Amino acid sequence: MNTKSVTAMGLLLAVFGITATGAQQDLERRASPPAKTAEHPLDLCTVDEKTDATELKALQTYSSPALEKAMLSSKSFWDFVSDPSTPYMDRMAAANRGGSMLSPEELPWLWQAMAEVGSVPSGVSPPPCSAIAGGLWNSLRENASRVILGREIQLPTNDVGFPVTAEERNRSPWLWQMERALSTLFDRTNNYYGDPGIYPARVRAAWAWPIPTSTDRAGGIGRNSDMEVWNRTSIRTRALTEIAPHDTLLLQTILKLALSSENQYVAYSAPVHDLYAWGDDSFHYEELAHVAQIVILQRTRREEVAAQAAFVAASLAQYKVISGAPRVRPLKTATGALAIGRWAMSESLNPWNRYYSFVEPICRMVDDPPCPVDQLRDPNDPRLDKSLKTFEAWFEKEKPKLESEAEAERPHLESLAKELQIDIE
């Protein structure tokens, strides 16, 4: 909440009699389980969900003198959120209200904090509702300290149970509280900076936030990857693209990420699946997204990135017109089919990946597919080799026709590519 909202909040507190102590006591009273809570994960899951719902409701009106004072400036706000002595509900309330508190120049405070906190174990077991098993950090446990947000923190060597009640959350480890608060603040900040008028400022700040570089390789992400490098890369990508307006800048940003060689993780983090159109998007935006798909398919060296682009291209080709997206309609081009064909005809790929990720999307796009859609569902299907050979023969036969159609499409696609400040091959 910005400083203009503090007075209004004070009036609400006076009218409704809401205080920090009252809200906290109400949260604990309604969310705490009976004295003897069953230890079965499903029971704990139910308690956790009820606590989440009650906490979310309480945060809409929660206040305290310390919280209101913290919301007077970005510096006091950040110090309050990150201070280990800040009570849990105060921390979460600040994060919930803080979407507009940080200036573009200060956004790296948040991203850096997320990277540091996310690179060490929080000292808390996974949520009882989660399918994630414990032990993720076991190989990284060590009796050591790390500097987190300028503070030397002793890393936890064991996990405590996941805090499912309000009382347990009040006593939970600082790293876990920060992980939770930073996630909330990140969402609120992205939502605020998702306004088309100020989204460019967020993008500029994110590109300026440095991430580690490394020797580029196209083979994929290694198992022994550096957690902090991945965290920083992923956080920057999310800051660039999450809750963003559907405009040319977003498409340019996804393109830049997908074709990046800053380090081996950037391209894999790119949300290529968002090169799509829906809702209030215009057909022009849909065409721009399709051009971005084509450029990625033509230029990337990464199979996984190309597979995402092929998937969304086929999805647009098969788009079903609905009332909620009146201007979006099915879109397919010969240029797109040829771009996917570059991959579909590559014998260097694993046969199943080649068929599933590239041959089948083309079969979904063309009017006379060489193979029935969804014909194969098993990598060990004995028909796989024959299906690939059938496709190869069909593609070689149809390629001249596709190339002729692509030549006719070229002037329009080039004009779209010019808007994205990129060239089509």
What does this structure look like?
The chain has a two-stranded antiparallel ribbon with strand order 1-2. The chain has two domains: 184 residues, no CATH class; 149 residues, no CATH class. A hairpin with a 2-residue loop joins strand 1 and strand 2. Helices cover 56% and strands 2% of the residues. Helix 2 runs antiparallel to helix 3. It has 18 helices and two strands. It is mostly helical and 425 residues long.
State the main characteristics.
425 residues, mainly alpha, two-stranded antiparallel sheet, 18 helices
Rg calculated over all Cα atoms: 26 Å
**Helix count, per DSSP?**
18
Shape: elongated
**What is the makeup of the main sheet?**
2 strands, antiparallel
| Low-confidence runs of at least 5 consecutive residues | 1-38, 215-225
Structural class: mainly alpha
Counted up, domains total 2
Q: End-to-end distance, in Å?
A: 48 Å
Mean pLDDT: 86
Topology pattern, helix = H, strand = E:
HHHHHHHEEHHHHHHHHHHH
Helix content: 55-70%
Number of beta-strand segments: 2
Strand content: under 5%
Side by side, the strands of the main sheet go 1-2
